[in-house]
Design a protein that fits this description.
The protein contains 13 helices and 15 strands. It has helices at about 25-35, 85-100, 110-120, 140-150, 160-170, 210-225, 240-250, 265-275, 295-300, 315, 330-345, 345-365, 365-385; strands at about 10-20, 40-45, 55-60, 60, 65, 100-105, 125-130, 155-160, 180, 195-205, 230-235, 255-260, 275-280, 305-310, 325. A seven-stranded parallel β-sheet has the order 3-2-1-6-7-8-9. Strand 10, helix 6 and strand 11 (about 230-235) form a beta-alpha-beta unit. The longest helix is centred in the last third of the chain and has 20 residues, at about 365-385. The two termini are about 25 Å apart.
């Protein structure tokens, strides 16, 4: 099944997000461009640049005025008795003009912000959970209360991993129509190139939950025994300066390239060449976790052998010992040993890369995943019409 399957069965889908130009949220922009055969419109508080890709667009924030259906967005969830503000009239006109028949809200806070308007308009709605919104945010009482109010009033929830659904359920937040659908990857973009056996790649923001310093320390241990091995890190963030300083302290500055923030085309080109992909994801001190990291899905599609952690939804896609190697969070010894194993055993590395690619083609191609999501949307609409 692919994303063309339900093109004729679905009305216009409105994709609702907070910001359509977050560099790491390529999956949201792809929903706007290609979900439902491209029959979509978009809403966001901060559209910026070309995030809407020329689609009909409604901005919920105007200069100098916060426009949203609940007084304070995720800071004050809509409770019984609260009324939508005048934005509701603008929303209704947009829905009517573009014949919107379904809403897909990206991330839990957006769902809280929009579900009462969807309900008032009689529009079926799903909310997509992707990471922080089903981990760190669950320590926020007001947010959890908002989800409790929202869930019985929408038609389904989607999460990128079973782990996130379990996190929600641990707070008593469940929905009878719950699905696990990863963000997915474009298999056509990530066709493996000739692999460089000495290229180790890491892609992601330089932040706590990605533990870039742990990646550097593990690489330093192995690099001392593998003089040709090189590490490239793509991404920026609050730990960028610390990572560069750590490389100097470890005497590997000449073996590590910090590319900083790069466009998706650059990432694709490096992933296609990388033989090994490293990502030491951990739970942040604030409780934030990954969902099912897109960068790992991309590395698998590109045929790299993955070295990562038993964290969040990663074990759901990276089967340890088959499609890559996984270690416990913060296990520097195990992480270093895993890298050494992949760096020195070419047959193992190639076998795991091929298995990762085969799995990704079958289970992570976004066109197949869109087919599943569109089928669920169509079923929700049919249930409403009975």
């Amino acid at each position: 099944m692919d994303s063309m399957t339900h093109r004729g069965a679905l009305p216009t889908v409105c994709v609702v997000a907070d910001n359509l130009n977050q560099p790491s949220e390529t999956f949201v922009r792809r929903h706007v461009r290609e979900l439902n055969g491209g029959n979509t419109v978009a809403m966001a508080r901060a559209p910026g640049g070309d995030g809407a890709a020329g689609k009909p667009f409604l901005i919920w924030q105007r200069p100098g005025k916060f426009r949203q259906p609940i007084g304070r967005y995720d800071r004050r969830p809509l409770l019984p008795g609260m009324r939508p503000d005048p934005f509701g009239a603008e929303f209704a006109a947009f829905v009517a003009a573009h014949r919107v028949g379904f809403m897909l809200c990206e991330f839990g806070p957006v769902g809280i912000g929009m579900h009462e308007l969807a309900r008032a308009a009689g529009i079926p709605m799903f909310c997509y959970f992707r990471g922080y919104d089903a981990s760190r945010k669950l320590s926020d009482y007001a947010y959890v209360n908002g989800l409790r109010h929202m869930l019985p009033r929408i038609d389904g929830i989607v999460a990128v991993s079973a782990f996130l659904l379990e996190q929600l359920a641990s707070r008593g937040l469940t929905h009878p129509n719950s699905m696990v659908i990863p963000s997915g990857v474009d298999s056509r973009m990530f066709e493996p190139a000739e692999k460089d056996p000495n290229l180790v790649l890491s892609v992601g923001r330089m932040v706590e939950k990605k533990a870039p310093l742990t990646t550097l320390r593990a690489f330093a241990r192995v690099a001392a025994q593998q003089p040709a091995l090189r590490l490239e890190m793509i991404g920026d963030g609050g730990l960028s300066a610390s990572a560069a300083a750590e490389a100097r302290v470890l005497n590997i500055a000449d073996r590590v390239t910090f590319h900083g923030k790069q466009g998706h085309e650059f990432v694709i080109a490096r992933l296609r060449r990388a033989a090994i992909y490293m990502q030491h994801s951990v739970t942040g001190v604030n409780g934030e976790t990954e969902g099912a990291p897109t960068s790992i899905q991309e590395a698998m599609m590109a045929g790299a052998a993955v070295l990562s952690t038993r964290h969040a939804g990663i074990p759901e896609i990276v089967r340890d010992g088959e499609r890559g190697l996984l270690v416990p969070e913060h296990d520097l010894d195990g992480y270093s040993a895993g890298l050494s194993q992949l760096a020195t055993d070419g047959a193992l590395r190639e076998r795991m890369g091929a298995a990762a690619r085969a799995y990704a083609l079958e289970q992570l191609d976004y066109r197949k995943l869109y087919g599943r999501l569109e089928a669920a949307m169509a079923a929700a609409i049919a249930t409403r019409s009975r």
